[in-house]
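job 3f2a | input accepted
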Amino acid sequence: MRIDGTLSQWNDNDKCGFIAPARGGAAVFVDLAQFALQEHDERPRLHERLSFELAIDRNGNMRARSVRRPGRSGVLAGLRAAVRPSARKRKRVGQGAAVFLVFASAAYMASAYLLTVAGQQPGKTEEALELRQPPVHEGLYADIRRTASLD
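job 3f2a | predicted structure (151 res):
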C-alpha cells in the first residue's frame, strides 16, 4: 500500500533522510537508492511531497522503498520528455500554420470573387449602367420634339 508524505530531513553526504507520513506517525528512513530516479531528475528536496511503500529491514526497522514523486511515473515521465517537441520544432510548426492560413484565406477570397463574377449576366450589367446614367437635357422643348418625331 502506498503512503503519502513529505521529506522532513535529508543529508546529501550520506544520501539518506527521513519522510514524515502525511497522516502522522513516526518518520520513516529512506536512502537515495529507493528513489525511482530518471536521468533528468534532481536530488530530493526538503518538504517535497513523496509517495512510498513501507518495508522492514533485517534489524526490524521501518524503511521507505520504491519512493516516487506524485504525478510522475518513471516510465511516463521518460515518454513525456521524449514526446515533448523542441523549441525549434514548435517554431517551425507555428510558421507552417501561419503560411497555411495565408494561403487558405487567399484561396477563399479568390473563390468568392470568381463566384460573384461568374454569377453576373452581361446583359443585366449593361442595362444597369444605362439606367444609372442621368438623362441628357437637350433644351426646353426637347420633350415636344421627341414626341413629335415619334408620331
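job 3f2a | The mean pLDDT is 78.
job 3f2a | closed
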